[in-house]
Amino acid sequence: MEKKSYYFNMIEAKDGKMAEVLNFNFGGHHDIAAMVEKAQKAGLFAKDKHAKEFVLAMRFMHHVIKKNSESPLFAEFGPQFEAFKKSVKDKLGCDCDCNK
């Protein structure tokens, strides 16, 4: 699978001024833009913006849980998140057969 790399830059708009508040690289084999498009087409959200936020949140959370699976923080939530992720993939018609 081809690895993709993304660069995220968050800018806060406050009092008419823009300030960078955080930035980081994120990668994996998932095509985030294609995932957003599937979420938008599925009609699960009132606004396209929510589909974007949802996909990013799911990818980030999955990555953090996977990289910190031994953390007590995720002892209860990890398995529930995996079940939720599978449900989402089914609803969106995700054809990815990976467990990543």
Chain-wise SSE layout:
Layout: E1 4-14, E2 17-28, H1 32-42, H2 48-67, H3 77-92
Antiparallel strand pairs: 1-2
Helix pairs in contact: 1-2
Features:
2 strands; alpha+beta; 100 residues; two-stranded antiparallel sheet; 23% strand
Basic shape: globular
The beta-strand count equals 2
Q: Whole-Å distance between the termini?
A: 11 Å
Element order: H for helix, E for strand: EEHHH
- Give the % helix: 40-55%
- In order across it, which strands form the biggest sheet? 1-2
Ranges where pLDDT stays below 50 over 5 or more residues in a row are none
Described by strand count, sense and barrel closure, the largest sheet is: 2 strands, antiparallel
Would you mind describing this structure in some detail?
It is a single chain. The protein is α+β, with helices and mostly antiparallel strands. The chain is built from three helices and two strands, in the order ββααα. It has a two-stranded antiparallel sheet with strand order 1-2. A hairpin with a 2-residue loop joins strand 1 and strand 2 (17-28). Helix 1 (32-42) crosses helix 2 (48-67). The chain is globular and about 45 Å long. The model has no long low-confidence stretch (mean pLDDT 90).
